[in-house]
Every structure is written in C-alpha cells, then in structure tokens.
Amino acid sequence: MGGWCKKRVSNTGEHHISQIYVSSEPHQLPIIYREEYNVHFGGIEKLHPFDAAKWGHIFQYLKDANLVNENTVIKPNEVQHQDLLLVHTARYLKSLKWSWNVALIAEIPPLMLVPNFLVQASYLRPMRFQTGGSILAGKLALERGWAINLGGGFHHCSRDKGGGFCPYADITLLVQFLFEYEHHRVKSAMIVDLDAHQGNGYERDFTNHSNVYIFDMYNCGIYPRDKCAKAAIRRCVELRHFTEDNEYLHKVEENLEESLREFHPDILVYNAGTDVLDGDSLGLLAISAQGIIRRDELVFMKARERRVPIVMLTSGGYLKKTARIIADSIQNLHDVGLISE
C-alpha cells in the first residue's frame, strides 16, 4: 500500500514527517483494521470486563460475510510520539512509561507489577495502532464520504489525562489532524457521542472551541460524571438507567436532527459505543441489538442526506456479543446503501 505524508512542526518545535495518512486503493473499502489492534497480556486482560479481542472478532464476522478481507481492508500505521504531540503534552506521554500509571488508565491493577516494556508491547502499542486508524479515518472520510475504524473511540482521554481504558486522545487527534492538514476543507467538526458514558476527554480538549459542536447522549448515573467537561457539550442528553429502545431512538433522531440544523459541520465524528446494550453492566442501559443497528443507520442517514463526511469509531462495549452486533450493523449500513465502494 502506498502512502503520503506531510511535514509539520510539532509542539516541541521539531520537524516531523507523519506516516499516518496512508493512501487507499480503489478496490478497498474505507474500513480500517489490522491484527495489531488486539490486546494480549498473557491472560491478565481477562481481569477487565472489556473484550480485548473485540476488534478481531468484528473483522472476522465481516470477513465471514464477504464484506471485507485482508486485501480490501485498510491497514493503518502506528501513531508515533511526534504525532501524539500535536495534542498530548510531553509530560503525559512520559507518564505512560510507568506501569502503575498505565494500570490506572486501563483499570487493570495487576498491570502495575508488569515491566513497562511488556505493557508497551501488549497494551499501548495496540492502542497506538487504533489511534492511527482513527486519524486515518478522518482523511478517508473526506475522500470517500465515510470511513469506519473497527477500533478507537477513546473518549475518556484528553491531552493530559487518560482513563476508562483510554490511553490516547484519538478523537481529539482525528479532529486536530484535519484542522492542521485539511484546513482548506475542514474548518468545523461535529462529534456525535452515543456511547453509554460521557465523552469527557475530548470535551475537556474542545472547551470553548466554537468550531467543534458536541452532541453527547449518555447515562448520567455512571462514570465519569465530569461536570467541568460537560460545559463543552452543545447538545447534552442525559439518560437514566435502563432506558429502552423507543425512548432512546426517538431522542437520537430528534436531537441529531436539531443538532444538524443548528450547526453545519465539514465532518461528523460518530462515537458508536455498544455499551448501551441491554445487560452491559457498565453502561446500565437496555437497548436491544436491533436498536443499536437502527441507531447507527439513523446517524449515517442524517449525515449522508446532508453530504457530510462521517467517521465511525467503535468505542465501548463490554459484552462478548457486541462484536457480532457491530459487524451486523456495518453489514446493514452496506445493505441499505449508506456505505458502498
């Protein structure tokens, strides 16, 4: 696969050649994934409720459905230290060299006893590949009208603080890369966050940024309850425990429609968490699998009607069956003509 890159000056003042924006071939769909997304800790990852191989399972289901294969999926590069400095502070990135800091972010306490080089290889490197995939998805969406990163959506991480299994601020990075490199095409962005949790990371990063509109719909009774970050939300919809399909889908459609009337973005970043699924012990909502599929269809439909390029990130989802639901949703988007070659 060929690639292209641009010079830029990082926050450190040093010149850097980024390899994130790789090119795609005509036969490839803008669906982004590589095997390195998956997390392996020699079994330690099982101490966290998250399915550490979720991304590989999504890809396998899509492959079984003949929607993608190894040749048609787009493989991103790993985001590099200098790329991360476009958003992250050097101090924060340095803090990831200490295993106890990473253990707090990943919410896996035994990680603090693991040598950092193993933590880097087993957890942070996969997250850097997924972050590279999110940034690349922004560029591909401009070119193809849509893009789906089978990973990413680390919405609890800000420029100087990680948390909630989110070590890198991929959403902030995605938007900032577009503002930096595609400023002739992208001067405004909308973030639609339908993960069950408040997206406090990028909200902290985009507080007082009038060119970034945030629509966040989340369960207000669970983590992170970040009141400071809430100030950045332009359309805030707070749900109660065990909200079901009818109320949920009505609020998605009504509020997304009103958001797009208020604000006309050059790109829409959709954080499509599946932790809203009924039975998810961390999301504590009660949305069915068909409800999630319909939700994703609504978001893509609203964006495509207005010819707004859309990026989808898979974000949270803590049940083993969420991989199947995500794959089924992507297949549905294809079947109804909302994504195509």
Structural class: alpha/beta
Q: Regarding CATH, which class?
A: Alpha Beta
Tell me the overall shape.
globular
**Largest beta-sheet characterization:** 7 strands, parallel
Strand order of the largest sheet: 3-4-9-8-5-6-7
Question: How many beta-strand segments?
Answer: 9
Tally of helical runs? 11
CATH topology: Arginase, Chain A
Could you tell me the mean pLDDT? Answer: 93
CATH superfamily: Histone deacetylase domain
Q: How many structurally independent domains?
A: 1
In short:
With 341 residues, the chain is α/β, with parallel strands linked by helices.
Structural notes for this entry:
It is a single chain. This protein has 341 residues and is α/β, with parallel strands linked by helices. The protein has a single domain, classed as Arginase, Chain A (3-Layer(aba) Sandwich), CATH 3.40.800.20. 38% of the residues lie in helices and 11% in strands. It has eleven helices and nine strands. The protein has helices spanning 54-64, 81-84, 90-95, 99-106, 116-144, 170-181, 200-205, 227-230, 245-262, 289-305, 322-335; strands at residues 7-9, 15-17, 31-32, 146-149, 189-193, 212-219, 235-239, 267-271, 310-313. The strands form two sheets. It has a seven-stranded parallel sheet with strand order 3-4-9-8-5-6-7, with helices on both faces. Strand 8 (267-271), helix 10 (289-305) and strand 9 form a beta-alpha-beta unit. Helix 1 crosses helix 11 (322-335), helix 5 crosses helix 6 and helix 9 packs parallel to helix 10. The radius of gyration is 18 Å and the shape is globular. It starts with 6 loop residues before the first strand and ends in a 6-residue tail after the last helix. It is found in: Nucleus. Residues 48-326 form the Histone deacetylase domain. Its EC number is 3.5.1.98.
